[in-house]
Each structure stands twice: as C-alpha cells, then as structure tokens.
Specification:
Chain A is 32% helix and 29% strand. By secondary structure, chain A is of the alpha+beta class. Chain B starts with 5 loop residues before the first strand and ends in a 13-residue tail after the last strand. Classes of the chains: A alpha+beta (245), B mainly beta (198). The interface between A and B is medium-sized, with 32 and 30 residues. Chain B: Residues 65-146 form the S1 motif domain.
Chain lengths: 245, 198
C-alpha cells in the first residue's frame, strides 16, 4: 500500500469533504424530500417518499402494517456505474437486502414511529459513486431527507466508518482501505444522547483495541453531525426567508 | 415578525416543569426535546403551563381527508375510471396537485353499471367530488360524484376555437355550448344558485 492511502491521522486533517444538497430535486409529487450527499468520494442520491397509509386494498401489505407504529421500508441500490467496474446489480440481491435491513433497523431506532400507526415510510437510497463508507453515507443522507420531510425523529443519525492501521485508529475509510483486509467498523450514532443505533464490524479485532476504535468512530460521527446540523439550519433559513414574504 | 428560535431534532428545549410538550416534541428523562426542524413556539393556555411546540415554516398543507369536497380537473378517461388532479380542498388551493381516481361505479348513485365515462367526464373538465378513500400505495385518492351536488361544474365544448366556449348545463346529464348549440353528455353538478357567478 502506498503511503498516500494510509495516512496516519484521526479523521483525516486533510480535506475530507462532506458536501450536502438538500431540497426539492424532484418534480415527482410523491417524493417528499430529496437529498444528495457527497462523502469523500461516495455520492448518493436519496429520496423519502410520502408516508402513506397501508390500505386494506393492497394485497399483502395489510399483513405488513402495524397497528400502533409505522413501518419503515428501506431500499438500497447501487447504480451500475458506481464502482470501478461497471456491473449490473439485480434488485433483490443479498448485499442490497442486507444493507436495506440495516438501514431499516437504524431508522426504526430514531424515527418516532408511534405517531403514524398503520402507515409506511419509504426511504429509497441510490448510490451514484461508491468509494467506501456506503452504509454511513446512506444513513447521513437518509437523516437529512427525513429531517427535510418533516418526519419527527428523536435526533439526527450520523454514521461513520473507522478502522485500524498499525495501531492507529482511522476514521472514514475509503474503498481501498476497507477492502485491504483490515478491520472496518461502521457506527451509526444519535449524537446528542450518545446512543448507538447500529454497530457493525468486519474482520477480526483484538478486544483491547475495540474501545479506541469505537471512540474514533464516535468522534467522527459527532463531527459529521455538526456539518449536518449546519446544513439543516442554513436550509431552514433559506426556506423560511423565501416563504416569509 | 419577531425572530423565533430555530431548532433541530434532538435539541433540548426545556424541562417538563416549565412547559407542556406540544406537537413536534417528545419527552425524555424529564426534559422536552424537539423532534422536528422548525421554529419553537410557546403558547400560553390560561393558568396551566405554556405549551411548547415546534412548527415548520412551510404550512402543513391541508390534506384531503375522507368526506372532504374537492375540486379537481380531469386529466384522462378510461372506460373503467377517470383520472383527475385535485386542485382545491374546500375553498383552499393546494400547493401540490394530488392525483385522484373516479371509478365508473362512483360516478352516479343510480344505474351504476350503465355508466359510460365518456358521457360523464371529458379531459379538461372541472369536477366537484368527494373523497371516499385515501387510496393505495400509488397515493391516488378515490373520489365519488354520486350525489346531486357533485359532478362537472365547468366544461368546454368539443368545438375548436373560436367557437370553443364554456358550456351551460341543461339537465343533470347534458350541457350545451352557447355558440354552436351542440349538446354534450356530462354528469352535471347541481350548484346552489348563490354560488353561480354571472
């Protein structure tokens, strides 16, 4: 591995940009809010559809609806041009189902689903460019989309990956670092309370290093949450200035 | 307007001793937190503690509810149903256009099986309808015009310009063009005389 990739500094003091665009990117009325997120080199487009009632007429979905809560339905997909090699990904394949399930679990922890009984909230995420940290980019984008849509949540959900390189914990891994065989830990955090929504780790890690790794990931998540917070407030001010007159 | 405080989900607003939680907030460990992005609003409700709530700047738009009378525009027709865009709920215009469907059997109350959508609506007609269901996943509201006061209010004749004019209702099932005097079939609404403008 060349030295440029494995730069030993926590949260990468060099430019790890996190660009966010919120707001109405779609003409489709069914989409309540969209958000485009660029986290280092992963880009993704995200849309939250309107919450809709699971009616008795739709076959099969009556069984999916819960009488006291909303059901959160997540769908994760990758564009064919997102990775280095152009690859057609079938819709129901294992990786995307697993990722959809993780997203669903993460957001069920954060969204106040008790306010919408017998309804369904759809979250559709599409990765436009994948360079590691797919799950964390999805979670951050979905948080923004939900916040923009006005769906009540306990807190933001911020996610980041972390890994170990030569006894130094690194945050926000890129694709080369993730697939290099080292440990990669993905953490989804509710920043204000410090509650962990989802924690996922690949490969083996000695348990002495676990605390340091989680600490690095949590610090990174809190940094992300500050960025998201700033973007949301700015967007809110822009929107309110427009509608105030 | 006085500058109100912005808040984001998860922000701690105050404790339960100061205020009562309203919409857009939730309780945790004796404190009130915001659950929406928006402005914090404190309302004094008499002797009790003030109610604190979070309002979004964009007005929560009026959604058509079951039983509401809506004004819609027909976009396409089909032997089985007519598709419409819902423009007004009651007398408030909507920001977005919702989609609705008027099924063949919901066009009128009598002789439902003998209804022909082509003789009841045409694309471009303005129709008064009532919501019977919020609809399915495709979020098409289900509407009905099976009442005397519901149906086509404004329709244009088939004639091309310059004869094309707004038709005048003759009976509950026919309208006539004032220029060409051609009669066309529609399911006409019986609008109360005081609502008719000259």
């Amino acid at each position: 591995m060349s030295s440029e990739i494995w730069s030993p500094c926590i949260l990468r003091d060099q430019e790890r940009c996190l660009l966010v665009m919120m707001g109405e990117l779609s003409e489709d009325l069914r989409i309540l809010s969209t958000c485009k997120l660029l986290q280092h080199d992963s880009q993704l487009l995200e849309a939250v559809f309107r919450t809709h009632r699971l009616s008795y007429e739709t076959r099969g979905s009556r069984s999916k609806s819960l009488h006291d809560r909303a059901v959160i339905n997540c769908q994760y997909s990758m564009a064919t041009f997102s990775t280095a090699e152009r690859k057609r990904r079938p819709h129901g394949d294992r990786k995307s189902s697993e990722m959809s399930l993780h997203l669903k679990q993460t957001f069920e922890a954060a969204v106040l689903t008790e306010l919408y009984p017998r309804s369904q909230i759809d979250i559709y995420v599409k990765i436009l460019q994948a360079d590691g940290g797919n799950y964390s980019a999805c979670v951050n984008a979905a948080t923004l989309a939900l916040v923009d849509a006005g769906i009540p949540m306990r807190d933001y959900v911020c996610a980041c990956t972390a890994g170990f390189v030569e006894d130094t914990p690194l945050a926000d891994l890129c694709h080369a670092e993730e697939s290099g065989g080292g440990t990669s830990l993905a953490l989804a955090l509710l920043p204000r309370s410090g509650n962990i929504a989802l924690l996922q780790m690949d490969a083996r890690l000695h348990q002495d290093h676990l605390d340091a790794l989680i600490e690095a990931a949590m610090t990174a998540c809190k940094g992300v949450s500050k960025v998201l917070d700033g973007v949301v407030r700015q967007h809110l001010e822009e929107v309110s200035v427009l509608t105030r007159d | 307007m006085s500058p109100m405080k912005l808040c984001v989900p998860g922000e701690r607003l105050c404790s339960t001793e100061d205020c009562i939680p309203g919409t857009g907030t939730y309780l945790r460990h004796g404190y009130i937190f915001a659950s929406l992005t928006g402005y914090v609003l404190r309302k004094n409700e008499g002797e009790e503690l003030p109610v604190i709530s979070v309002v979004r700047e964009t007005e929560t738009q009026l959604l058509p509810d079951v039983g509401a009378i809506v004004t819609c525009k027909v976009t396409s027709i089909n032997p089985r149903f007519a598709k419409v865009h819902i423009l007004y709920v009651g007398s408030t215009p909507l920001k977005d256009r919702f989609r609705g469907t008027i099924r063949k059997e919901d066009v009128r109350a009598t002789e439902k099986d003998k209804v022909e959508t082509y003789k009841s609506f045409r694309p471009g007609d303005i129709v008064l309808a009532k919501v019977i269901s919020l609809g399915d996943v495709q979020s098409n509201y289900l509407l009905t015009t099976a009442e005397n006061e519901l149906g086509v209010v404004v329709a244009h004749s088939e004639a091309g310009r310059p004869e094309r004019a707004q038709m005048v209702p003759i009976s509950w099932c026919e309208m006539q063009c004032p220029r060409t005097h051609a009669k066309e079939f529609r399911k006409v609404a019986r609008v109360q005389p005081e609502y008719l403008q000259a």
